[in-house]
Each structure stands twice: as structure tokens, then as C-alpha cells.
Amino acid sequence: MWKWLHSLAKPETMYRLCGRFIPWTAIAGTVLLLGGWTWGFGFAPADYQQGDSFRIIYIHVPAAIWSMGIYGSMAIAAFIGLVWQMKSADMVASAMAPVGAVFTFIALATGSAWGKPMWGTWWVWDARLTSELVLLFLYLGVIALYNAFEDRRLAGRAAGILVLVGVVNLPIIHFSVEWWNTLHQGSTNMQQSIDPSMRAPLRLAIFGYLFFFITLTLMRMRNLILSHDRQKPWVESLVTKGAR
């Protein structure tokens, strides 16, 4: 099994596999997001308390969910890179980091926009908001470390350690609404708390974000592989074929 995994981790093999999956994940993400947003923004009924302002959940909630999900995935990749010294694992974590940072920023920006009509202010140093902001700083720190060293192995090791240390922030984000008095609403059980006519498009949007995350990560992986192996014969051959 390990031999099979190591064969898949070869840069040339990973580059070609990423290229095969990108069109399918991109199509899936586009269809799911357009379906979820069209349904949610155009046809879902208004909330009995929040009116139409609740519709921001179709942007905010998927971004917030995957801001943590991406970081958790990065932590798994970082752990593999540190323990088994797999360069491809460090590359995967590096590819995920900017995507996770963007999702976290979207979650913070839309959360502030949602908080204005609900709380009367754009920002408060609320436990949930503050821990989500810390997550954004963690993403930026990881990106900075990956680009701070010319030695790719050293960069991967330093960034991987920061990723693993930062994992402690994930349960803080998730349970912050239970551990502290907070303006942010408590954790929502979608199955029980959200009407099916609102819940179905939200689920479509959540999966749409997931496939867009996968697509963007695969695209970044291909770029990182080409940059890392730019002097290898297989890359030179690829460039030569593309120029013809």
C-alpha cells in the first residue's frame, strides 16, 4: 500500500492526476453553487424573524464551515509531511492555505455584514468572531512561512509545525458559543432548526464550496509542482509540447 501511495506522490503522476480531476470538480462546484444560490436567493421563503437578510447564510455558512474543514485537512497533510517526510504532503498543505484564507475572510466579511442588522454593529470582539479572526492569522502565518525559506523542506517543516499548533483553535471556534457568553447564535442543527425549503439550498451551497475548494487546490498543486520541478526533464518536455 505504501509503495502505491509513494508512486502516486511522484510529482509527474500528481500533476497529471490533478489535471484529470479539475474539470469534473469545477463542473460539480459550479452546478451545485448555482443551484443552491438560485434556489436560496430566489425561491426560498423569507425568515419569519430576519426577513430576507437571512439569505446571507448561503454565502456565510459554507465559507465558515470550510474555513475550519480546510485547516483540518491541512493539519492532516502537515502531520504526514512531518512524520513520513513526504514532500508532496507539504505541497498539498501549501496549496490549501490560500484557499482556506480566502474562505475565512469571506466568513468574517459576511458575518460582519450579517451582524450589522442583527447586533447593530459591524464588529464586536465576540468569542466566535475573534477565534475566526485568529484562524485567518494562522492561515496568513502558514503562507508566510512557506514563502520565507528557499529550502522547501525547511519551509514545509516550519509551516507544518505552525499548522499543527494552530489546530487547538478549531475546537475553540466550534465551542466558543457554548463556552462563553456571546452575541453569536449557538450552533445550529440544520436537520431540526432550518426549514427544508431553506435547508436544501444551503446544503447545495456547502457542497458547492467543497468542490470549488478541491478545484482551486488541485490547480494550485499543479502550479506548485511545475515551479518545484521546473528544471526536471518531464517539465521541460511538457513546456516544449505546449509551445508547439
From TrEMBL:
The keyword Cell membrane applies. GO terms for biological process: cytochrome complex assembly. It is found in: Cell inner membrane; Membrane. Keywords: Cell inner membrane, Cell membrane, Cytochrome c-type biogenesis, Membrane, Transmembrane, Transmembrane helix, Transport. One of its GO terms (molecular function) is heme binding. It is a multi-pass membrane protein. InterPro entries: Cyt_c_assembly, Cyt_c_biogenesis_CcmC, Cyt_c_biogenesis_CcsA/CcmC. One of its GO terms (cellular component) is plasma membrane. The chain crosses the membrane at residues 21-43, 63-84, 91-113, 133-149, 161-180, 200-219. Residues 6-184 form the Cytochrome c assembly protein domain. Required for the export of heme to the periplasm for the biogenesis of c-type cytochromes. Belongs to the CcmC/CycZ/HelC family. This is Heme exporter protein C. It comes from Leminorella grimontii.
